[in-house]
Amino acid sequence: MNSIKVKASAHPTMGIVLLGGLSDPALRLPYHNSAGICYSLADRESVAETTLTITDKKMENTLNGETLDAKDTRSPFKLIDLYKEQINRKYSGHIYFNSVNRNIISGSSDAGAAALGKCISWLLPDVDKNDLELNMRKVSESAGRSFYGGLTVTEGIEKPLTRQILDESKFENYRILSVVFPHKRKPSDDIHFNQPKSEYYKKRIMNADQNVITLKELARKNQIKDIFELAMRDTDDYHYLNSLVDVKIVTEEMKVLMEEIHEIRKKIWLTYIVTGGNSVFLVTEEKNVERVRNVALEHSREIYLLKVAGGARVIQTGDSNLKTE
């Protein structure tokens, strides 16, 4: 038979209302609502590019050029296998997965899962998108953010679903500086498994759910600055909880920068977000980027300029390049 392949790309994500705690670790189901954005480097694409190939030929499954263990607990085959029978009704052959991350600082799991989901939805155009998102969560719990792009909210506990509430164009006058610190990133499951142990966690659930309600109203009014002000307050609440369960994400070096931001905010508009990694994300208006960069350079030499980005898209089928989908 002739081989058929589809390639899709998706941008990585960062939280706005941060997710912590999983009610079902296998299905990656949450205890509370959350929100996030897709991002890309400002001057070049940050994407996971994923290709599904269906062929009788012998191939390897790879991630960033390395052979992939299909039995890994977060393997993309957890998603592929759910649709394998449907795909093989239309296309006979073995299904091979190849994915590469380009210019991604953090959030690559979301991007990879979303790009894979986009490939599946192209192969199976009648697939239920809500069911697809729930299945994508088995690979990465916030994949819906990357699938839809822009600013999204994810609501629901037993059947959490994501929808876009602002597209990326609404953020064109704003930039995000990722200030990277040299310590090792902790696994996200350290947060998910430990946060629920705290007595404060019930309060955190209420805070996160209320923040999503507020966020939707701010988005309706296009109040972009207030959206990022909310994100900063949510960051503080989230990492206060982490400190109670001895999951140290914010190091002393990161804390010094965050405290300095509060002083600078008296002069210019500037906020921060810290998710689960080793970056402090500084959000400001485009006109103030160089001023903020100079401050950041006093704390780290590894700084990336980011922008809010759109959702997953098919970029190639067979030998045909597609503009968008």
Automatic annotation (TrEMBL):
Keywords: Isoprene biosynthesis. The keyword Transferase does not apply. It holds the Pfam family MVD-like_N. One of its GO terms (cellular component) is cytosol. Residues 10-154 form the Diphosphomevalonate decarboxylase-like N-terminal domain. GO terms for molecular function: diphosphomevalonate decarboxylase activity. Residues 186-289 form the Mevalonate-3-kinase C-terminal domain. GO terms for biological process: isopentenyl diphosphate biosynthetic process, mevalonate pathway. Homodimer. This is Mevalonate pyrophosphate decarboxylase. It comes from Cuniculiplasma divulgatum.
